[in-house]
Design a protein that fits this description.
Layout (H helix, E strand, L loop, with lengths): L1 H19 L8 H5 L34 E9 L4 H19 L33 E6 L1 H4 L38 E7 L2 H14 L4 E12 L28 H7 L15 E10 L1 H4 L4 H8 L36 H5 L10 E2 L2 E7 L5 E11 L6 H11 L6 E11 L12 H4 L1
Antiparallel strand pairs: 1-3, 1-4, 2-3, 4-7, 5-8, 5-9, 6-8, 7-8
Length: 426
């Protein structure tokens, strides 16, 4: 099977090389990429299969969450609007190829001239698509930077919903791993496939963008489909039981997808992404009794059922009391404070990941949750929920929010002439 895959890659690369031979080895990236490939995978997400790249919405939002993540935020360093648009075109074509299991460029990793750098880095040769999805977003600073400059003539196209997040009580944000002009989320069932995708997009962006920060993740902490079991976070609890699911069509319309009239037309069909890197103080948590852990969360650790109930998906009864007459779900329990009933009905579609970034030099693991949540309007959803949690959640004793990001993720790429963010730049 491996030999067959490599042969297919080489055949495609040679065909592409023949088609562009007249351009010359030193031709620009855009000349090599545009119109070179029309991937049309129809299979659904699986451990090794391809996820369709084109569609009404970007893949990687309601798509079933695979096991691995490589997330990156970029700063745009070019001052040339045309160069930025060209990069987004190149990224779109490369993304379509890589999500279909092909090299990033038409020549490929091994079929080019020995004197020229390959147009793919090569570490995914022989690997299947592994359910790879690539999702792009635009940060507030793309529209007006920290100095107030409108570098690309986009200031009047910034959606009101892309307002900077407020500072929440307890935030310990590190600017160097927060924000960004652009982001790309790569999710896959093989970490090498995800890293390969980000590496090649960064390579294509040399001179136009630079990596601001990035994050690797493993072990999804939520599910976006009822076909997926609820996973566990590093505290050992099931996470994301009440998450929005791909099957919830009406809820997705109301809480996830930007609707016509919500803001600028270019965002209709898109969604807003909030990222938060949340370090868990796991050494302290690991010395906390099981009973206290369950009281802090508001669920039993084994089944994931709300306290006082038997099944994970049982409705939470906030009026129930325990033997002592106190609420069975504490007033400061995480599930109570995050529940839609306490947040004007606000709901999120979460697709976060665990992370372990080594140790902090003091014998403690630098580990926790890379939280990612998509929504229709962060001002009405994430901000409402996080304000409640930051002020009252008893779990805050064990958590530190060290990174934050906000991005407008446009609708999907519809056809070969389309590209990420086209309507924004039209």
């Amino acid at each position: 099977m491996t030999e067959n895959r490599i042969s297919r890659r080489r055949a495609i690369g040679l065909a592409g090389a023949a088609g562009v031979a007249g351009v010359g080895v030193a031709a620009g990236t855009g000349a090599l990429l545009h119109g070179a490939f029309d991937p049309s995978p129809t299979s659904a997400n699986s451990a090794s299969g391809a996820v369709p790249f084109r569609g009404e919405h970007q893949a990687g939002i309601t798509t079933e969450v695979p096991d691995r993540l490589h997330f990156v935020a970029f700063d745009v360093i070019t001052k040339d609007r045309a160069r930025l648009v060209e990069l987004l075109r190149d990224w779109t074509v490369a993304a379509a190829r890589m999500t279909a299991g092909q090299d990033a460029g038409v020549v490929g990793a091994v079929n080019g001239a020995p004197e020229a750098p390959p147009d793919d880095t090569g570490e995914a040769l022989g690997l299947p698509p592994s359910g790879l999805t690539l999702t792009v977003g635009f940060g507030p600073t793309l529209f007006r930077d920290a100095d107030g400059r409108d570098r690309f003539g986009l200031a009047d196209r910034r959606p009101a919903a892309l307002a900077e997040l407020p500072r929440f009580p307890g935030d310990a944000l590190q600017p160097e791993i927060s924000g960004g002009d652009l982001c790309v989320q790569a999710c896959a069932n093989d970490p090498q496939v995800a890293v390969h995708a980000i590496r090649n997009l960064a390579r294509l962006g040399m001179g136009a963008v630079s990596v601001r920060w990035s994050q690797l993740g493993f072990g999804r902490t939520s599910s976006t489909s009822r076909e997926q079991a609820t996973p566990r976070n590093l505290f050992g609890f099931k996470d994301g039981t009440a998450n929005l699911k791909a099957e919830d069509t009406e809820l997705l319309r109301d809480h996830l997808w930007v609707q016509p009239g919500d803001g600028p037309d270019w965002m209709a069909g898109g969604s807003y992404l909030v990222t938060r890197k949340i370090r868990m103080i796991i050494e302290t948590w690991d010395r906390t009794s099981l009973g206290e852990q369950e009281e802090l969360v508001g669920r039993t650790k084994g089944s994931g059922a709300p306290i006082g109930q038997r099944d994970e998906f049982d409705e939470i009864d906030f009026k129930a009391t325990g033997p002592d007459g106190k609420p069975a779900i504490a007033e400061t329990a995480h599930v109570r404070l995050a529940h839609p009933d306490l947040n004007n009905g606000a709901r999120l579609l979460r697709r976060g990941y665990n992370y372990v970034d080594g140790s902090d030099g003091l014998g403690r693991l630098d580990a926790g949750l890379f939280f990612m949540a998509y929504q229709r309007d962060p001002r009405k959803q994430f901000v409402s929920i996080q304000t409640q949690l930051a002020r009252h959640d008893a779990l805050n004793e064990y958590l530190r929010h060290v990174s934050s990001g906000l991005f407008a993720c446009p609708p999907g790429v519809r056809d070969q002439g389309d590209f990420w963010g086209r309507a924004l730049f039209d």
